[in-house]
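Kindly inspect this one:
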Amino acid sequence: MATGADVRDILELTGGDNDGPISKKDLINSDKKKTKKTTETLTFKRPEGMHREVYALLYSDKKDAPPLLPSDTTQGYRTVKAKLGCKKVRPWKWMPFTNPARRDGAIFHHWRRVAEEGKDYPFARFNKTVQIPVYSEQEYQMHLHDDGWTKAETDHLFDLCKRFDLRFIVVHDRYDHQQYRKRSVEDLKERYYSICGKLTKVRAASGTEPKIYIFDAGHERRRKEQLEKLFNRTPEQVAEEEYLIQELRKIETRKKEREKKAQDLQKLIKAADTTTELRRAEKRVSKKKLPQKRETEKPAVPETAGIKFPDFKSAGVTLRSQRMKLPSSVGQKKIKAIEQILIEQGVDLNPMPTEEIVQMFNELRSDLVLLYELKQAHSNCEYEQQMLRHRYEALLKAGSGTPGAGLAAAPQGGELNATNSTAGSTPGGEVQSWPSVDDIKVEAKEQIIDVVGAPLTPNSRKRRESASSSSSVKKVKKP
């Protein structure tokens, strides 16, 4: 779109105050700079009877004239286009320059603004060099002498470190292994950083403790060896490691579940103990007949009980029957269990909501919930005990064919009692005595990782089969 400013520029007509180079502010804030003449002359009004959409096609919001060609005037996330006026563009010049990072004095050419002629090359500030320490003959003989390194070899190392900016892989590649001993990258690093540490310690001012970088060559060698072993693993070893990691995660999840169940069980036992103690204390207080305390202190449901009913302490009228509603924290299973027990005992589900009945009814349901949770915990403990018992029997049978031999030939399970071995070996023994808790703990500690219901790994299964076959061969060879 050609504007009047472009026409005046083509015809070389003067533009008044707009002569001169264009600056960055003129390009960005060109919309803010509006002269009084433009505001006075460009005063368009929408004719009566013309729709707003039709008028918007003719003129924009800034009252500009309609363009000759379609253009994108939307502003938002798009980049702002430069709006050029009558000012002259800043001139550029093809000029020579030298790079201070180079020492050969090479001269290059590039385009640059005329105002920046004579300034330094802007990218020279990125040329950072490593400061390699320099030592004298006296310092080397007094502090840096080493039996495994000669001075010529040390000078050669520092010369390469200075040439290649401490890129030790390149230094190791360019190292003269024919003239000097064959060194590894860790040996070169250890020699260089040990000399730097000694020089900083010697040259430090008295009374100050300089920070010294210590390079552990042994740790670096072990790290690389471990990386090589990790890289050279076979697919079978990788699969076995992944399998063991999955089994370890299962063990951790099951351990967390057991700890959580134990904590819940302890909470239930504590709640039952506290409720019984509070009930006994209330009965003792009621027997003493204290009329003043009866009026002031009203017995309430303890916080540790099965259900925590909300307190209606807000201002306004409330119904006493609202205190009998179960809170939303109680699940549907518990609600159904409470209703079933109340129906079995012949208790009304919605009794008359007097003060005493509401209190006693809430306490009764709280005790029922506590009883339900204790029954559930008790059944879970019995199930786990039965499962461990069956597993223990399976381990005894897996040791050998007969129970007595399995008890005697189980070195990993610990030493069992003599009564257990005799009871298991006698065919007519009716009483079966189980091992103590300490024996089971010793067995669990000395065995392989305990995974309940999980199969063994392929390699461990092979080892178990080979051990069982060798034990059977030994039994056959015995007279």
Q: What stands out?
A: The two ends are 113 Å apart (CA to CA). The first helix runs from residue 4 to 10. The mean pLDDT is 74.
